[in-house]
Amino acid sequence: MLAMKVVTLSLLLAFAALSGCRSQATSTGSDPLSGRWDGTWGPSEERQTHVVLELKWDGAKLTGVVNPDSRAMDISTASFNANTSAVKMELDAIDLNGEMDHYSIQGKVDGKNMSGTWTRKNGAGTFKISRN
Question: What pTM does this model have?
Answer without folding.
Answer: 0.74
